[in-house]
Amino acid sequence: MHHFSNSINISFIYISVLSRNEFTRIFIFDIPMNH
Questions:
Q1: What percent of the chain has pLDDT over 70?
Q2: Is residue 35 in some structural domain?
Q3: How many CB atoms lie within 10 A of CB 9?
Q4: Whether the predicted pLDDT of 30 surpasses 80
Q5: How far is 32 from 34, CA to CA, in rounded Å?
Q6: Which is more confident, 21 or 28?
Q7: Does residue 10 belong to any structural domain of this protein?
Q8: Over 1-35, what HEC string results?
């Protein structure tokens, strides 16, 4: 059970990092192009 919960936490962190990287990519590359 602990291992299962830990796997979910790792997956959530991984998704969060991907989402933040995607946001950063958009913020860095998309906004300068629009301005």
A1: 66
A2: no
A3: 10
A4: no
A5: 5
A6: 21
A7: yes
A8: CHHHHHHHHHHHHHHHHHHHHHHHHHHHHHHHHHC
Q: Residue 9 — pLDDT band, cuts 50, 70, 90? A: confident
Q: Could you identify the residue written with the tokens 């958009």?
A: 26
How far is the first Cα of the chain from the last one, in angstroms, to the nearest whole number?
A: 50
Residue with the two structure tokens 């830990």: 6
How far, in Å, CA of 5 to CA of 16, rounded?
16
Structure tokens at 2: 């602990």
pTM for the model stands at 0.43
Structural domain contains residue 32: no
